[in-house]
Amino acid sequence: MKYFIGLGNPGKDYEKTRHNVGFMVIDELSKRWNLPLNKEKFKGLYGSGIINGEKVILLKPLTYMNLSGESIKPLMDYYDIELEDVIVIYDDLDLPTGSIRLRTKGSAGGHNGIKSTIQHLGTQTFKRIRIGIDRPTNGMRVPDYVLGVFGAEERPTIENAIVKSADACEKWLTSPFVEVMNEFNKQSDS
C-alpha cells in the first residue's frame, strides 16, 4: 500500500495559492489514475484504489495547513499504513519556484504543516516531495505570500513541477524510492 498526502488549505479561497501545491499534485494524481477523492473522514478528503497492482490512498487534509498531522495519523492508523509507505508533498520557500526535491527525512524547516506531521508521526523520517515556491522579494510578509496565487509568469513553471511531482509519485509505485529520488532530483538540477 502507498499513501500519498498533499498538504494545503481547504476551500475555494485557497485553491490556487502557493501553499496548496501539495493539493494540486494530489488532484493531478486523482485525475491521472481516475481515482476520485470521494471519502470525507479523518478530517480529510481521500480516495483509494488499485494502481499498477498496488493499493493507493490519496489524501488532502481538511484541517488547514498547521494541523495537517491531525488528519494524516488517524488515517494511517485506520488502514495500518507503515511509515515507509508514506509520502508527503508540500510547498517550500527555500527552493526556486518550480524546482522539486525528494527526501527521505528532514526537519520542518519552518513549515507548519510539516511541523504538525512530524509531531503526529513522532519522527522526521518519512518520504517527501518539496516543491519550490521561492521567497517573497518585495517586502511582502511570508503568510501573505504563501496564501497568494502564482503570477502569470510562474504558472507554467509550477504546472511543470506539479506534473513532475506526480510522475515521481507514479514511478514510486514500481521503483525503490532511492531510485526515484536520484532520478527526479537530478532532473531538477539540470
Description:
By secondary structure, this protein is α/β, with parallel strands linked by helices. The protein has a single domain, classed as Rossmann fold (3-Layer(aba) Sandwich), CATH 3.40.50.1470. The chain is built from 6 helices and 7 strands, in the order E-H-E-E-E-H-E-E-H-E-H-H-H. The mean pLDDT is 95.
Distance between the termini: 32 Å
Estimated helix fraction: 25-40%
The ordered H/E elements are: EHEEEHEEHEHHH
Radius of gyration: 15 Å
Structure class = alpha/beta
Could you name the CATH topology?
A: Rossmann fold
Largest sheet: 7 strands, mixed
The CATH architecture can be named as 3-Layer(aba) Sandwich
| Name given to the CATH homologous superfamily | Peptidyl-tRNA hydrolase
Please report which band the strand proportion falls in: under 5%, 5-15%, 15-25%, 25-35%, 35-45% or over 45%. Answer: 15-25%
Write out the strand line-up for the largest beta sheet, numbering strands in chain order: 2-3-4-1-5-7-6
Number of helices: 6
The top-level CATH class is: Alpha Beta
Overall pLDDT? 95
Q: How many strand elements?
A: 7
Tally of structural domains? 1
Low-confidence stretches: none
Question: What best-fitting shape do the alpha-carbon axes yield?
Answer: globular
